Here is the input.
Amino acid sequence: MGGNPLNIRKAGQDDLSRIAEIFVFNNRVNYFPIFKDEEFSFGELQVVSLVNGYFGRDDVREHLYVCEDKVIKGFLQVNEREICKLYVDTFFQSQGIGGALIEFGVRELHGEYLWALEKNVRAVSFYQRHGFCLTGERKLEEGTEEYLVRLERVGT
Here is the structure.
């Protein structure tokens, strides 16, 4: 990780474009092969519209945290006890950033559960390695035929 310590902090307005960039790229890499929706992945899913829309909303921004080491390498969103989003820039994955974010989310923000796309085996496996277990609960991802699976932290 460049020899610099990781810093996890509350996201600010100036962080939103980087957060949206990480989100867009991860979604295209991980979800386009599953959903195959060009119109959404390369049309609707844009950094500027996410900054001005979803990530720019006060009720979202107040729950965003970033992990940085000179640059923002990942982010986390926890609302109440739900871990809503955890993304690490694909260039910085497998360096402990996701693990640091999930542990921060559990320890500092009291995250207890999350929903992950069932076909995103890599994400489900990551959460299981970090103490989350499949509950058997599933629901359809809104507007699709793909399922989300619920994972809960063991011992919560």
Q: What stands out?
A: The mean pLDDT is 92. The longest helix spans residues 16-35.
